[in-house]
Write a structure and sequence with these properties.
Immunoglobulin-like; Rossmann fold; 2 domains
Length: about 375
């Protein structure tokens, strides 16, 4: 009882604070310029999954790289202490199709739109967005474009990857190291694990070109870090794809209080339902519960998981439940690798015919040159 009661009390406090801060800013003329922040979505049999947010622009996403720990700490605090815009009306359109969405109290908008991708819209369908109404704000016309991942007709594979300690080195198993990395580093100063860009590019390439096979990123990190993650991927030539994160907050289901397993399993389920013709490679790390989550995902979606690759960031010391999960995956015939580099994962992909010898050599060179 104490846990739910405390969460409700904290959430009420959070809402009161937000409303009070907004009222003070409104009375003092300090309301900022609203901006539309679309997140990459994806198209499936039920329609187009669209999500984004309307915030007062604090200059965080456009801030230049800084090597200053204090500057990066300040930017991180601004990422979490967002000035969201609730009750805003967002218009969307694609050709003659159009509609509107309303932001919630945290500034989020989202829906599954009843749209079917047309011929030639793979790998990315574009949706035009515009800010049509913002209560209590004066604003100039604001437009944005949402990128929606569409499966190529020649796609046979999808990749679902964790982020922290899977593509980005964060030291998640060491609390102090992890939080210094997360809080005080910019996208430029974060470190990619050796070979991750080359391996993911190799998996993504197919008969339809370099983006034949879609890549998705599922993490329990909050949406506040979305722009940082995407900028990091661009800097390290890691294939872009929808990034499915968690809401930052204190009420049930959000980043500070919600379940890690349920969040990831639900998002993996969404992706697999959206791309029913694909089998998936699941990539994670040994620092948290990825092995357990991926074994459960394979059990819930039989025949949909081709391989599971776990990056060993714990020096071979796995939790007993992780050992059990990996053994269970192997017993079902799913390929499993566990290593501190991506070499075994790349070799398994080569043997399965998912990448070729040239791509394998690129992965090897990237790892050796790190």
């Amino acid at each position: 009882m104490t846990g739910p009661f405390l969460r409700r009390a904290l959430h009420r406090t959070e809402r009161i604070w937000d409303k009070t801060r907004f009222a003070v800013k409104r009375r003092t003329g300090l309301l900022g310029t609203p901006v539309v922040v679309p997140y990459r979505g994806f198209a499936g049999p039920e329609g187009v999954w669209l999500r984004g947010r309307v915030l007062e622009d604090q200059g965080v996403a456009s801030a230049p790289h800084s090597a200053s720990t204090l500057r990066n700490l300040w930017l991180t605090l601004k990422r979490y202490e967002t000035d969201e815009v609730g009750g805003a009306t967002i218009g969307w359109r694609r050709g003659e199709e159009r509609g509107t969405l309303l932001t919630d109290e945290e500034g989020y908008f989202g829906a599954v739109l009843p749209l079917e991708p047309g011929v030639g819209e793979a790998p990315w369908l574009g949706l035009d967005l515009d800010l049509q109404d913002v209560p209590h704000h004066e604003f100039e016309p604001v437009e944005a474009r949402a990128a929606i991942r569409v499966a190529s007709p020649s796609a046979r594979l999808g990749i679902i990857s964790d982020i922290d300690d899977t593509i980005i080195e964060t030291g998640a198993t060491n609390f102090l190291k992890h939080w210094r990395t997360v809080v005080a580093n910019s996208a430029h100063s974060r470190t990619a694990f050796p070979g991750v860009g080359a391996f993911y590019r190799a998996l993504a390439e197919g008969d339809g070109g370099p983006e034949t096979h879609p890549v998705f990123y599922v993490s329990s990190s909050p949406w506040n870090l979305y722009d940082l993650f995407e900028r990091f991927m661009v800097l390290h030539d890691i294939p872009l794809g929808p990034i499915l994160l968690k809401d930052f907050g204190l009420d049930a289901g959000k980043w500070l209080t919600g379940g890690h397993d349920d969040h990831k399993l639900e998002r993996i389920g969404w992706i697999m339902a959206a791309f029913p013709a694909l089998t998936f490679i699941l990539i994670g790390d040994s620092g948290q519960r990825d092995a357990v989550i991926y074994e459960e995902a394979a059990r819930r979606h039989p025949g949909r998981v081709a391989a599971v690759h776990i990056r060993d960031v714990t020096g071979g010391r796995l939790a007993a439940e992780a050992e059990t999960a990996l053994s269970a995956l192997r017993e079902t015939g799913i390929a499993v690798t566990l290593a501190d580099t991506l070499r075994p994962a790349a070799r398994q992909a080569l043997e399965a015919g998912l990448i070729d010898h040239r791509q394998m050599a690129n992965v090897e060179a990237a790892i050796a040159g790190a």
